[in-house]
Structures are given as C-alpha cells and as structure tokens.
C-alpha cells in the first residue's frame, strides 16, 4: 500500500524546471567628489590618508620617520586604528576631531593641513606647535604672547640685534634658573 501512495505522489508532482541563471548586478557607483586638494574623486578621507602617510615618512617637525606603534602610543589610539587611517580595507576612514588634532600636534602641523584645507608650514601651524611647547613648559598665555612679541621684534631691522641679544639673555636666565631649581629639588 505504501508503494502505491509513492507512485501516486510521483505522478502528481510536476517536473522541475531548470532555473534561469541570474544576471550579475552592477556595482553601485559613487559620484566623483571634486575635492579642493586634487583630482576629481579625491575625498577628505583620501587627503587625510595621503597627508598622514607623508608625515609618517619623515616629512614632519621631528625630521624622522614615525612608526605606527609610536604614533598610536603618542596619540592614544590603537595600532589597528592607525592602520585603518593609512591603509583601509574598505572605505577610507578619518578619525574624530580630537584625534586629528592630537596627530597634528604630534607632527607639528595643523588639523587643517591633515584634512586638506591649507598648505604645510604655515605661520598658524608654527604658532600652534610653539604654544604647545610653551604650555608644556608651564608658561601662561601672557608669557607666551610676550615671548612671541619679542621674537617678532627680531624681524624688524631697527630692533633685530637688540631683540636677538635679549632672547639669548632670556634663554640663559631660564636655563640657569631651571638648573638651580632642579638642584634645590634634588637636595634632601
């Protein structure tokens, strides 16, 4: 009886039709981005990636190449994150504003340069790095502004020699004071 049911079911089923092959889908295409920094199709992520690589290859205020681990440690992100900024497997990635600023400070440039908004070696980049150095020394903004003004006098032909002499004297005073302060701290 079971065999009869099987035969009946087999007769009732229609024969399978072979499936038509699927046509391949066209890949999605992006409209070209006409970036300010270069060719059509170059995005801010591309500019960031190129400029970060440029800086890591020794074209920076440190005058040496910088490895992924050193940059990651200095900026406070992981090695894979730095790798993703330089050589993304998918679409290029740009870090957040805070990380971009930290990378810029590390290399002695500006976030604007990294993102493609200006050219390297600008006065703004130099002043940003200079302020970071002064702040690291514990100087307040008034001191920073005064030192900047004194250094600005060096470019004036009438006062350049005097300004240079005053800066040299100030440098000697600061060094002497710092050495004396260290000796006092080391005494028990």
Please characterize this protein's 3D structure.
Helices cover 59% and strands 0% of the residues. By secondary structure, the protein is an all-alpha fold. Among the domains are: 72 residues, 434 Repressor (Amino-terminal Domain) (Orthogonal Bundle), CATH 1.10.260.40; 48 residues.
Estimated helix fraction = 55-70%
Give the ordered list of helices and strands: HHHHHHHHH
Q: How far is the N terminus from the C terminus?
A: 107 Å
Unreliable runs, pLDDT <50, ≥5 residues? 24-40
Instruction: Tell me the structural class.
Output: mainly alpha
The DSSP helix count reads 9
CATH architecture of the domain at 44-115: Orthogonal Bundle
| CATH fold descriptor of the domain at 44-115 | 434 Repressor (Amino-terminal Domain)
* Cα-based radius of gyration, to the nearest Å: 32 Å
CATH superfamily of the domain at 44-115: lambda repressor-like DNA-binding domains
Beta content comes to under 5%
Mean pLDDT: 75
Shape: elongated
Largest sheet: none
Number of strands: 0
The CATH class label of the domain at 44-115 is Mainly Alpha
What is this entry, summarized?
The protein is mostly helical and 188 residues long. It contains nine helices and no strands. Among the domains are: 44-115, 434 Repressor (Amino-terminal Domain); 139-186.
State the main characteristics.
elongated; 434 Repressor (Amino-terminal Domain); single chain; 188 residues; mainly alpha
């Amino acid at each position: 009886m079971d065999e009869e049911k099987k035969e009946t079911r087999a007769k009732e089923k229609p024969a399978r039709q072979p499936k038509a092959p699927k046509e391949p889908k066209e890949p999605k295409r992006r409209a070209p981005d006409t970036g300010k920094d270069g060719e059509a199709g170059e995005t801010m992520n591309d500019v960031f990636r190129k400029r970060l690589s440029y800086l890591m290859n020794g074209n920076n205020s440190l005058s040496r190449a910088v490895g992924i681990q050193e940059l990651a440690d200095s900026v406070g992100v992981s090695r894979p994150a730095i790798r993703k900024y330089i050589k993304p497997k998918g679409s290029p990635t740009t870090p957040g504003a805070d990380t971009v600023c930290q990378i810029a400070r590390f290399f002695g440039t500006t976030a604007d340069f990294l993102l493609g908004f200006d050219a390297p070696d600008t006065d703004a980049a130099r002043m940003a790095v200079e302020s970071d150095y002064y702040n690291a020394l514990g100087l307040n903004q008034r001191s920073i502004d005064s030192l900047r003004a004194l250094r600005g006098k060096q470019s004036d032909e009438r006062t350049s020699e005097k300004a240079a002499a005053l800066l040299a004297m100030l440098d000697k005073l600061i060094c002497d004071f710092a050495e004396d302060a260290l000796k006092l701290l080391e005494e028990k």
